[in-house]
Design brief:
This protein has one domain. It is about 25% helix and about 40% strand. It contains three helices and ten strands.
Amino acid sequence: MAASVYKWLVIPVMAIVLLSARPPHPFHVSVVEVNHNAADKTLEISCKIFTDDFEKVLAKNYKAKTDLINPPNKAAMDSLVKRYLFSHLSIKANGKPVTFSYLGFENENEAAYGYIEVENVPSVTKLEVSTNIMYDLFEDQLNILHITVGGNRKSTRLSYPEKEAVFNY
């Protein structure tokens, strides 16, 4: 009788252990949001990427130990995040390339958010976005773009190897 009770106790415990282990997610996606703040004349940009994937690509590209959740050196992680985002995202506002200002990054649940700002953009009639975020790690990567100008939100999806999108307002 003890063996049969043991079998019924072990199976649920093993199921709990298996369910609590975090398996890799079955899809690869990032979200880039661009909001034109007319009052401040800025573009407010956030890039949302799965933290584990982002750590992998930073480690691969920059041959550095990465920890975005509990970074032992926040400044070093900020430097890697900035370097990666600036080299994998570019924007033209009204036909002119913009200059990014890096604001920082943070984690929320399983995602890392990188924050960028562009100053001196009084109005937007056309926004050209080029991104290949995570294309250097995943050939099934999807990059979703949400652009908001004057309260009008437009979105598109770029599938590897697509990297260009144009939004007219």
